[in-house]
Amino acid sequence: MAYQYVLNVMSDDHPGIVAAVSSVIESLGGGINSCSQTVLGGYFTLIMIVTLPEVVAEEQIAEKIQTLGNTNSTSHHLQVLVRQVENHANASPKGPYGKFVITAFGQDQPGIVRRFSEFLAGKDINIVDLFGEVRDGQFVLIGQLEVPDRWDVRMFQADLDEIGQELHFTVRLQHENIFVATNQLRMRIGG
Amino acid sequence: MLRTEEILSTIEMLHAEHLDVRAVTLALNLDDCASASVDSLCRKVESKIMAQASRLVETCDRIGVKYGIPVVNKRIAISPAATILAGHGSAAALKLAQTLDKAAAECGVDFVGGFSALVQKGMTRADRLVIESLPEVLSQTWRVCSSINVATRRAGINMDAIAILGQKILDIAEATKESHGFGCAKLVVFSNIPEDSPFMAGAYMGSGEPEATINIGVSGPGVVSSALRRRIAQESNLTLGDLAEEIKITSFRVTRVGELIGREVAKGLGLAFGIVDLSLAPTPTVGDSIGEILKALGIEKIGAPGSTAAIAMLNDAVKKGGLFASSSVGGLSGAFIPVSEDSTLAEAAEKGYLVLEKLEAMTSVCSVGLDMVLIPGDTPATTIAGIIADEMAIGVINDKTTAVRLIPVPGAKPGDRVDFGGLFGASPIMEVRNVGASEQFVNFGGRIPAPLQALRN
């Protein structure tokens, strides 16, 4: 039998965190299925799906990682959250959907992410990747979305334009194929 | 998952640097519309265009919204009008042109190209009919564009046709003198005309093409000059090799936009995708200019020594990047240098940096030729024919497409300025030197034989 777990690790950034996590997984006889890691503002965060050969208590896995991570480091504290993967953990829309990218640029102000994310949630649109950053007083928001095919892109863009006008933001919604075509060697048509 | 920097760089290219899809052109074969009766011919033409092209604009707009990139012009290119005019008289030529004009308007397209004839080795009666009708057709219709191919590598140069066209260009200018001879902007004289170009006024559908196909042309001079300026600002000790590489990368990205939109539009219309034309096509918008690229490459005054080398490098790098981006490259695929449509080139002409002879030299290494060049309205027909012959010779000898789109502006002198508005832009009247001195050469007529390059088998 194989048992899947999702791990989430957060820490101030320093070398050795991934080494600590992967050592623990290996010591449990497990393997890493997929992982994604980023550093933001000096803070490290990692999400990882792992497979273990037998059931291990979630707290026990977290404790092993914390112990090893903190041993290997001088003054850092890892926060680790572990959950066994549930089969229904998929938030993609039920019907057909297209992969779009929303970009919004404008003067930084409170409530931008809330305004857009509430709008998207209200339309049953799943955000699969989100980036936000203040650059020279301008806030840049980029979201990769799963947009159900039932939405007319023109109407959707009109709604976003309205929110953009209200916030004095430039907002664009574009199918991801345009970004793939202009940046990657292979291109995708349709979708 | 896409990376943030990839998204941001594409957004910058599309929106800050004004990349757009310049033209989606539906190429349509009309040969099966031929009929002994003019009325029947025109009915069939209108019906076929409406059946194939009525959804063109809506489809382009829908795909444009999906990708957040505007499709600026939607056009139709037909198989040469001379073919379906065979056996008809002069009234039929005008009536067909008016039918094309009306059908294009009903479909919402801005131009319909292909009121054309291929006469590189000689003229049929129908070819002559098309050429004779041009002053009337181009003055009495708005959307109809014409192209006449007078030379090829295999056939040589038809000087008889060029001599006739020298006079016809003056006649068209006279017939449209209220708009400063604008009718001439809708006629292109070609050597080695491409059969699948999406760009007007020279687009037509050649033989060997399917019944209908979608060809696409993407703009991009602004994107290339921005990319060069950014690279130069970021790095020192760059060589021209580094800058050529930057152009190549940018061309790859620009071409991909064309390929994506073209294929989706074709799919949406249930048609074959034809080609993406790599040509960098400038517009009068400041910054969207081939001249600006040359400036970024260090040519302070366009027309100065080095201009030809710079544009040769640009043209080559654009092709190399584009060819890797798409396996369906076609059309003209080079850098256009239409004087009135490129504000920096027009400015160089106005200041006297860029003269006709230097422009001609530059066209020998890029696409497409002496394009949108305004000359005095009293330039003799034989001199116009001589200019055309020179440009055709460059095409024939170098086995490339060259073209001439001259506008002899009635009543205008060198230095006067004419503004056509919109994409056609504004330009000073350029001086033509040695006027009248090629009369005897042109009057010999006949055909300049095909060059040695024709014998490749």
What would your notes on this structure say?
The complex is a heterodimer of chains A (191) and B (457). Chain A is 30% helix and 39% strand. Chain A is α+β, with helices and mostly antiparallel strands and 191 residues long. Chain A is globular, with a radius of gyration of 20 Å. Chain B has a domain at 4-191: Anaerobic Ribonucleotide-triphosphate Reductase Large Chain, CATH 3.20.70. In chain B, the strands form two sheets. In chain B, strands 1, 2, 3, 4, 5, 6, 7, 8, 9, 10, 11, 12 and 15 form a 13-stranded mixed beta sheet that branches. In chain B, strands 13-14 form a two-stranded antiparallel sheet. Chain B starts with a helix and ends in a 9-residue tail after the last strand. The mean pLDDT of chain B is 95. Chain A binds chain B through residues 101, 103, 128-129, 131, 140, 142, 144, 153-154, 157, 172-184, 187, 189-190, and chain B through 1-4, 6-11, 13-15, 62, 65-69, 253, 256-257, 259-260, 263-264, 267.
Care to count the β-strands of chain A?
Answer: 8
What percent of the residues of chain A sit in helical stretches (DSSP H or I)?
25-40%
Mean pLDDT of chain A: 90
Beta-strand content of chain A: 35-45%
Please identify the top-level CATH class of the domain at 4-191 in chain B.
Alpha Beta
- What is the number of helices of chain A? 5
Instruction: Tell me the fraction of residues in β-strands of chain B, as a range.
Output: 15-25%
The CATH topology assignment of the domain at 4-191 in chain B is Anaerobic Ribonucleotide-triphosphate Reductase Large Chain
Average pLDDT figure of chain B: 95
Into which percent range does the helicity of residues of chain B fall?
40-55%
Major beta-sheet overview of chain A: 4 strands, antiparallel
Name the strands of the widest sheet of chain A in spatial order: 2-3-1-4
Q: How would the global form of chain B be characterised?
A: globular
From the spread of the alpha carbons, the general shape of chain A counts as: globular
Tell me what the CATH architecture of the domain at 4-191 in chain B is. Alpha-Beta Barrel
Output the structural class of chain A: alpha+beta
Instruction: From the alpha carbons, calculate the radius of gyration of chain A and give it in angstroms.
Output: 20 Å
Distance between the termini of chain A: 37 Å
Cα-to-Cα separation, first versus last residue of chain B = 51 Å
Tally of extended strands of chain B? 15
